[in-house]
Amino acid sequence: MGIFPRLERIRRLNLTPGVRLVCMSDMHRGDGSGADDFAQNSLIYRCALKHYLENGFTYVELGDAEELWENDNFDQIYITHTSVYELLVKFHDPDPAKTRYLKIWGNHDLYWQDNEAVYRTLFPGIEIYEGIVLETGALEGGGEAFGGAAIGGGKKAAFADGEKKASGDGESGGTTAPGIGECAGVATSPGPPEDGAPSPSCLPTPKPGAILLLHGHQADPKCCGEMAVVSKFFVHNFWPELQRVGIKDPTRAALNPGLCNEVDKRLHEWANNNDQGIAAIIAGHTHRAVFENLSLTEQRYLESKVRTDGVSFKHQPDRSYFNTGSCVHPLCITGIEITFENGPRLRLVKWGQATEGNALTIQRTVLEETEPDSGG
Known about the structure:
Radius of gyration: 20 Å
Low-confidence stretches: 138-206
Largest sheet: 7 strands, mixed
Mean pLDDT: 78
Order of helices and strands: EEHEHHEHEEEEEEEHHHEEEHEEEE
Number of helices: 8
Number of domains: 1
CATH architecture: 4-Layer Sandwich
Shape: globular
Structural class: alpha/beta
Strand order of the largest sheet: 7-8-1-6-11-12-15
Distance between the termini: 24 Å
Number of strands: 18
């Protein structure tokens, strides 16, 4: 797991002044039953979406949006959370240069890797990716205008370490992947492209300082490759019923701090040791918010000045790794906002319940942020 992962499809965005992005992950939208972790936060989430819609943000969904390990199909999820999808449609535009809705798959919604057509019944023309690369410099060869950003042709491409494809369902095979900037040479999906769909092409090499957005399960041995098949089997067949009586899915890093640490460490290492031009990674998957490579608990520990001999800890922030947290925290959700003026500015935000006098409200709180002129 130490090798930088092969990503099946990527999208490139060129950050320019005025761009506003918000990244959220791990909604795990379900069927509305006791096993639906998202249901309790649906109203909070919709309030956040309305804010970002009205304030010109592009919404980036960083995987595990739909709980398709526990549920057999998307239909019941849509029926249960129709109001959410009605809001998401307002972000979407069939023109990739105009859309404000970007979607990445995770392990719990890996289904979208090969079944985009199902999602296109709601979002015509949408492409679903394994990763998105944010670049702060102009791309050679130009790109389409995109809400103040430019896209490197809007193409699908492989993003790789040179290994063969290893999909989340445990199947392997395919062609050896080119690195960034090399020509993909073959379509990333079987069969000819649909009418109007982008064809494979050579993409420019990213300039140093790029930010990679991905779900993060690629750094979790239980949730990618062959082990994902075993995890999915148990989650699908046993855990929904156990969740209804209060027992949670033990395969999730969110419920295992030790595994959380391992996944965070691996993602941080990938950001600092790669030849792909990636300087920072923003991920989800663990459900634990991380800002500048420090969880909120670690940040408070550093601020407290408490020190015990023999206890290892991170000594300082590191802007190479961030994590969005999740949308299934108890009565709150977290995400990362990205704006760009003199450089990318990141904010870790929380949306949750608050009181104003006798009124119960939903408020946005900035938990951590970088300086306006600092990089990612």
